[in-house]
Structure formats: C-alpha cells, structure tokens
Amino acid sequence: MDKVLLQQLVLDRLADDLRHTEQAARVAHETATHEENIAENKYDTLGLEASYLATGQARRAEAIRQAMTQWRSFRPRAFEPGQDIQIGALVCLVDANDQQQLLFLGPDGGSMKLVSEGHEVQVISGDAPLGRALLGKSEGDEVSLQAGPGRRQWEVLWIH
C-alpha cells in the first residue's frame, strides 16, 4: 500500500475539515456580531454563545492548520524486516477472531478512517492510546489495550 498516497488522503481530509471549520467560524462570528443579537438583558445570551462558538471554531481551525503542517513535512518511509513500529508505519493487526485491522501511524491529526486500494485504514497518531501501545512493538508481538470494562488484544501481523 502506498504511504505517500495515504499521506495525501490525510491532507485532503484535513483540508476539507479546515474548509468546514472556517465556514462554521464565519457563520458563528456573523451571528455573534449581528445587530439583532445585541443583548437586551442579562438573559439574552445568543450573541455571547455565538461568540464562544466562533472562538472554539477558530481554535479548531488552527489545530487543523498545525496538523496539516506536520503532515506536509512528514516523510513516510519503508520499514525493514525486524524493525520496530515507529511513526510512519503501516501496521496490520489481527485479533482472536482473525479480524484484521490496518493502521497508519502518523504525526498528528489522526483518528480518521480512509479507504485506499480497497482497504479501510485507520489513521492514528503516536499519542493515541493504541498508537502508544504499538510504538516499539515488532511483528508477532502482542498488543493489548483497556477498552471500557474489558481489554482488547491483537497480534502484530506485519509492519510496512
């Protein structure tokens, strides 16, 4: 599977998210500053609430921009046999029911699912709980993660 293509898919998704977030921030700002939303009493909070929303959307947009910067400078590379999992790895996990899961460990802005070459790939960062559990593991290693009241376990099938 082409990691450069996966990187581009992540950048495309982040760009889409940024467009939507910036549009939402503009709408919230317009609502907050519209003359009809000037508070007439202490219970009239529509303008104030829209202002908080606009601020939150602006912060989210900045976080997406930072993630895009990291993904643009990211250079995925091939992994050699026997090499431990690091950022940039494409990992295949298998659970006790023989269900396989593809993961792409990236620098930031993960937590998205992509479809590439007919396969679903979960993009995660090394800061995500599963990402932290994977870092330093090798093919054949067991990985476990507390998930709610139970534990999930996988085996690292392969690393690319």
Automatic annotation (TrEMBL):
Gene3D superfamilies reported for this sequence: Transcription elongation factor, GreA/GreB, C-terminal domain
Keyword Protein biosynthesis on entry: yes
MF terms in GO: DNA binding; RNA polymerase binding; translation elongation factor activity
Keywords (A to Z) from UniProt: Elongation factor, Protein biosynthesis
UniProt key word tRNA-binding: no
The name this protein goes by in its record: Elongation factor GreAB
One Pfam short name: GreA_GreB
Source domain of life: Bacteria
